[in-house]
Predict the 3D structure of the following.
Amino acid sequence: MKLRHSIPIILVVLYGVVPLLLQHNNYIMSILVASLTIAGIALAWSLLGNLGGMVSFGHAAFFGVGSYTSAILTMKMGVPVFPAILFGGIGAAIASIAVLPALRLAGPYFALAILAYANIFRILATEFTSLTGGAGGLLGIPLFPELFGFNFGSKLGSYLIITSIVLIFAVIYRMIRTSYHGFALLAMIEGEDSTRVVGVNSTFLKAMMLFLSAFMTGIIGAFNAHYINFLEPDYAFSGVWTMIPIVAAIFGGYRTLTGPIIGAIVVYTVDQLIFKALIPSGHQIILGALLTLMILFAPDGLIPLFSKKLSWARRVKENRSPQTGHIC
Amino acid sequence: MSALILQSLYSGLLTGGYYALIALGLALVFSTVKIINLAHGEMVLLAAYMAYVMENSFATNPVVAMPLALVIASLIAVIIYFLISRIKKHRELNSLILTYGIGIILTNAILITWSADIHSTSNEAMQKPITIGPFSSMTSELIFLGVSMLMVAALWWWLTRSWYGRAVRAVSSNRDAAKLMGINPQNTELVAFIVAGILASFAGVALYCTGVIQPSLGTALTTKAFIITVLAGIGSIPGVLIGSVLIGVAESLTVTLYSSAIQELTGMVLFLLVLFVLPNGLFGQTRRRG
Amino acid sequence: MKLFRNSLCLTTSLLLTFSSVHAKEFLVGVELPLSGSYARAGKGNLEGITIAAEMFNKHNPKHKIKLVTIDDESSPAKAQAAVEKLAGQGVVAVTGGYSTTVTGAGATAANKAGLVYMTHGAPGKDILERGFKTFFRINNTEGYTTAISGLLGDMGVKSVSIVTSSLQATAEVANDVKKDMAAKGVKVTVHTFDPGTADFKSIINKIKLQDRSEAIFMSALENDYVGIIRAAKVLKPNIKALVGLWSLATPKMATDFPDLMINVFGTAMLPYPAEFKTQEGKEFVETCKRLYNKPPDYLAQLGYVQAQVLFEAIRLADEKGTLTKGGLPAELRKTNRDTLIGHVSFDKNGDNPNFQQWIGQHQAGGKIPLVWPKDRSNVNMKYPALPW
């Protein structure tokens, strides 16, 4: 597959070229970090959608729980930042246990049930003032520390951390997808009853995917808390953390591995750098228009669109008749 | 104490009526066309702004804006349906994203056109308090409760008695069989969307007359409508009214008997409880497994 | 004769061009919410800042302020990015911000870049504990709290019910007012509501039948006030006064909802119609009318003062030659002057300890005179008085 060949190039660009060229441009780096944060959630969301077969409208719930868990652990119990982020993910996974009963609900019911959870967590965070700082939230959440002489609290440091997190997620996603369980899950999405006959424990697998998706989103939330250093209920559980990743994933092509990541980076950066310059206030209207057009003309997302066009171009060049069957 | 509870129940009933108006359009489209229209809240909001424009520019009673709101909301509904019908694959998921995109366009269009200022009716008759025994409310709230019940009845009648209404139900239940019966699914679904637009316009005017509008309201409206739709269950129109009133009353009682800070929590928890006990909502009719 | 006149014109225009060429331009960054939940506050703030720039440039031919505005979309991450972008564009200072989280993120980025951050949108206590060296603000919750407590104290109410939105800024004021009034021996009951609440009848009914307070204090936002007052008009609790916080004693509320506002109290810095005694005040109103076709509201007033103080300090620092050497914060700390919102100076945390709010009351004819404190008002407050 094409992807395998480009991995070294991607790594060089992400860890070498970008830092070298852009590390002093705080503004661009901020946008990159923010877009990668979205990419992480988009990946986790796609995982749940592709391998778990469940579309969620409330991933902000896991994001927020991860944020608060990590922030509280570092601020009130003196846990160091990096372990706390891990616990943030675990906290979100534990919170997803509450969502388990919703697994047996059909599509839109599940999607909405999670949305309800996001709202519930938000209100709980506002109410438990002694723990979460209530409506005022938490200020001065610790930055990433210095490790091996490198200050991870810097912009560059944050960028390296989130890039690594997203890459690790991508690897995990790939591993699961190509594993035995992955195939089982994919088969299950197509026809659950037949897989049960073959002996696949569908509910267990779905639950695992839910935990994993929640865990990943929680880690991203925890990252964001230490990056922005401020947290409040409306921000941590904001609908934005649910919807922009969905837009990014669909835009990039949620059935693919790179789709959500590229979708997030493209959508966010283009919106902030180009659309915002065109219409300073209300530029999201272009985003909305773009989304609409995408769905109508390229519903599988950008990546499949490009790979289709590339493979078609290649075949035309080699004088073969265009065929189907290119599994990305 | 009892006066407190009575008024609380009454407030909940009124709120429920208003929620039902908002949810009806979404529920209809979801039940029949199986599409979740995420721009529904924005359609309602746009209709509300039409009421504002009429009252502000022509100093009339906002209800006079109904025709204008009807036209605009129906137009948007037609455009949305037209765009949705261009989708070929994965209609459910893609229409979700499509309508989400349209919702963004509408919200920002409203922001650009009317800015972020808040608006509501200043009509005296609408705001006039009206008290019947231990029950008090604004006149507009009572009026629109009536409108809401009327709409539910009218919609139920339309779906069960009129030709187009029954065609809509036929198409939703079995598209191909309906075609064999001589029904054009395309036209029927379009009709469903237009009716949803009409319902949204009533909801919008109700919103302007009983509450305060601002551009950011669109998403909250869609969420509420959606929760009530799911609570009521697919295919049940009276269920929308019952579900709405249930949520309205639950919220009201929570504030009265417990704490006002967790009002929104009640709706959510109730919603989850119902879902877990009755996975198809209160009156839903579709198959059980997801 | 013609030749003389023409050459005179030519010389004059040359001189004018020459002198304006010498006007130094200063870029000032403005980052605030123009979309999202706080769009209303951001827009109002921007109007005030723009008026200040207009007036400053007119009176200071040698110094020209150029504003660079970026919408932070009510999001902390975008506020941070906005400040970073502005820093990259070479602004000498940043002003704007609304809500603690968003302002906090912007101020953090400004602090890192060594840029002054001047705001009116973070009145809570927490932000002062962040250790920012370049953070300045012209208002704080204490100013609002003292006004409300003072008014209620002067009214002599024995019990008050506080209806507050759970948002941080309003909740903080509500909490402080509660403490103040409880210390005075007044019975206080607090009802917190979620910002999405539209129907307040249940809360008002509780106040009417359970609290039975003499006054209601609303710590909320514009849309909440409309809902709360409507509910009060419907249920008619047996109170003597209805008091609110910011955005209430404004001409907009008087124009849009005359039946709801009459006799309602709210915090205000200026009466309406604003009777400005100073030349500056008169020019402020006139410039606002010219640019925006409406009288200035309190958001514009705050924006005007925060910008005016900042521009003045920029000019002074430039004349002393310290501007490019990071001397702006020190110059700002030397501020000690009267403004449209009263006396302004900055302590070591960047707070304005003089900040004080007054109370206005909606009275007949769409007028909103100041009624508290007594020495600031020339009109008696109507008490007890209600919108029904």
User: Anything to note?
Assistant: Residues 281 and 287 of chain A are 13 Å apart (CA to CA). The first helix of chain A runs from residue 2 to 22.
